[in-house]
Write a structure and sequence with these properties.
Order of helices and strands: EEEEEHHHHHHH
Number of strands: 5
Radius of gyration: 22 Å
Distance between the termini: 29 Å
Largest sheet: 3 strands, antiparallel
Helix content: 40-55%
């Protein structure tokens, strides 16, 4: 597993995991950089954008472009790195502004994903927001009461979700359900199986 900073949202989770991606001058994506341990055995693979500075040890080839990437396959705009301006500065410092642009691009992508998902009625959205605020306020004066309320919400979600999952399974294909939920097909399959209480491999 390659180590790098990633972004996600609570609702969409691993279906939309973003990070700063790197392109080389020839337009290719570089492989992970292997950084050995001090003992010389083992080590770790890293794909964090800042290691691609063309250095001699523990570094990858020189990055030409940074762009936001997402686990769903989406790629953001390409933001070139000006190495004449960067000079001998560490890339993790000199490239921060460019990496920040990638973060903003992915944030916009996450907003687009949310907008493309099946909309909820305002009445439901407002009730959920009110419940969240009320239970959060309750937790400050009575944590156990807040925990009980959270547990009741969990029970309610399982009850409602059971029939919703079964109906959705009949009314929509996996691809249609995934698009409506803003999730990958793999995560949609897991969600339906969890709420529908059937085997993931059924």
């Amino acid at each position: 597993m390659s180590e790098q900073e990633t972004w996600t949202t609570e609702e969409f989770g691993p279906s939309h995991t973003g990070s700063v991606g790197v392109l080389l001058a020839d337009g290719t994506v570089p492989p992970p950089v292997h950084i050995p341990t001090n003992s010389g055995s083992g080590g770790q693979s890293v794909t964090e954008w800042s290691v691609y500075d063309g250095g001699d040890w523990g570094h990858g080839p020189r990055a030409a472009v940074l762009r936001a990437v997402c686990s769903c396959g989406w790629n953001g705009a390409e933001h070139p790195l000006d190495w004449d301006e960067i000079g001998d500065q560490p890339l993790f410092e000199a490239g921060t502004r460019t990496a920040d642009l990638c973060t903003r691009d992915w944030d916009s992508h996450a907003v687009d994903v949310e907008r493309s998902a099946t909309p909820l009625p305002d009445s439901v959205t407002d009730l959920l927001a009110q419940l969240h605020a009320e239970i959060e306020k309750l937790s400050k004066t009575s944590p156990l009461a807040a925990l009980r309320a959270a547990r009741q919400l969990e029970v309610t979600a399982e009850d409602i979700g059971y029939w919703a999952a079964h109906d959705a399974r009949q009314d929509a294909t996996l691809a249609q359900a995934a698009a409506a939920l803003g999730l990958s097909e793999s995560e949609t399959r897991k969600l339906l199986a969890r709420f529908g209480r059937w085997s993931l491999y059924y």
